[in-house]
Structure prediction request, 407 residues.
Amino acid sequence: MLKHLKSVKDPRHKSYIEYESDIILFSMLMKNACSIYSMSNMTEQFNKDECIKNIANVLGYETLEELPHHDTINNFLCGLKPEEIEKIRDYMIKQLFKKRSLESYRLLNKYWCIAIDATGLFSFSERHCEHCLKKEYKDKETGEVKKTVYYHNVLEAKLVVGDMVFSVATEFIENEDENVSKQDCEINAFKRLAVKLKSKYPRLPICILGDSLYACEPVFEICSNNKWKYLIRFKEGRIKSIAKDFSVLKEIEGNKNKSCTWINDIVYNQRSVNLIETEIEDEANDKKCYVFITDIRITKRNADEIMCFGRSRWKIENQGFNNQKTKKYNVEHANSLNYNAMKNHYLITQLADILRQLYEKGVDKIRDLKKSIKEISSSLLESFRTRLLTNTEDTLNTEKRIQIRFG
Ligand SMILES: [Zn+2]
Prediction:
């Protein structure tokens, strides 16, 4: 992976390069992995001999006197094309697939589940750039605009593997320019995201997981054109004819097992869809009904597994985005106001999150310690900035050196 940090297409003029791209990107990955939110705090924390030596050691530099100043880093990220960071992520994810260690997480031993979800990143009270989305809050009686908010959202495709969720493709929800007649929206962004996903992973058997917004014809069509399956939360209001057919048919000829009821082959447009329903008690003992729509044929054998994977999408909200916002990386903190740099900061966070999850969940000894996110962040930071990494027998108090290798 490290050689990929070095081989990004550097936007800077050669004669101005003081720090190679791998030093900048690796520092930024560690900033995120250690849950350091601000750029100035990173400079402060990492500015220690041991830490500088560790970075030099990992990247194979014989000498490194200092680390780049955060302005240097931001200047680099202002010019760097976001695709360059996406390419590094593609490499990481492809290596994970190649190692075949995630095989047991496939749905029905076949499909890789990819959850689609949007989240808010930044909002401003004044226009921030020409691509901002805009929302006006009006007075109900007079129609007068009381407040205008400018904001940026992002749409993610996240691979769900057990209790880990890895970002595999990103599409920013943004207007083309200030004067668009219709603003960009989640479904439009999904159309672009789907093109990206297909071109990155043309033969991967994928099942798309989504919330009820995605239960609509354009999404069904994209999935069938790409030879993907879908498993999407279904709410009554989204497609009325399907909801009606399901409620009638399940009473007459519903298939059942202990926990689920389902109907295959409900006709909709030119296609047939399958619906599955379950009732689950939440923590307050209230019964909650979950319905999913899918083009996978539901049988007695696979019903429970399909339901379980459908519900796993909520992980992206609970563990994915919420952790990224509040506990791990504070993705809503703008490290730079330059829109291109903002995108790069966000993408670097997604890379760091893959590494961080493999570290938290993939290393038995760390998982068994059952430390909180905060504790892991602070012990990682402390060891990184105060203890020298060595190439020989490790100084960690484990018998074997822990390595997470990418290629
Ligand atoms: Zn903007």
